[in-house]
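At this stage, I needed to go through a protein sequence along with its fold in token form, as given directly below:
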Amino acid sequence: MNPPERRDFIYRYLHEYQTVSISTLVSLLSVSHMTVRRDIRVLEEEGKIINITGGIQLNDALRQELPWNEKALIHHRHKRAIGKYAASLVEDGQVVYLDAGTTTFEIAQVLAERFHLTIVTNDFSISHYLMNKPQLNLFHTGGQVDKRNYSCVGNSAAMLLRTLNIDIAFISTSSWDLEHGISTPYEEKVLVKQALLEIARRKILISDSSKYGKYGMFRVCPLSSLNDIVCDGQLPMLVQQQLQELNLKLHIVNI
């Protein structure tokens, strides 16, 4: 691997395993300690990671997301279970919004076999998957194209959403916690998510537990703005208790 490929590997590895030791990276990459430390220094200067005793971990202040196709491979078993459960919350005849994301794609795969639904999405992967399902009504928001995440963002997408009545909106995120609420490193995503908060009758955050405790620069909303949160059972028990004290319903999906 060349240096950018090594650094990309380290960053993806941390998204899946949270922390890693220097010696493990040396073994995985088949390079010297000095080479690994050079790569770590670059990632640290970019604000993506922080040093801990004997290794590194992701910076809780999320500055960049992984591309869609790489995120899809991480915690896939959890995302599939969350997606299946979330789809069970949808009733026939509803207008359903699926936010851009790999967990919402799992919802789409389940809803693809349903009837009498209207699906609205800003995600190209979801719309492409549902394109050949004639029993579903399908709308795409359009707007500024986020090539990294295969989706549309920005004011144009938000304006389209404000012309609709959404029964149930599944909202994705790369970072959330009790202190910062839902957040993102990308300003263009905020407008879309905030439009959903205005117009959707039921607003549901779907996220695997690995995204909890991270935060991006741009705040979308406090968690109290939601009706439901669907997450896996690896969410810390104290956090589960604190969330249940809010005026929302927490759904824990045991894997």
The domain at 3-58 is CATH 1.10.10.10 (Arc Repressor Mutant, subunit A). The chain has two domains: 3-58, 68-253. DSSP finds ten helices and 15 strands in the chain.
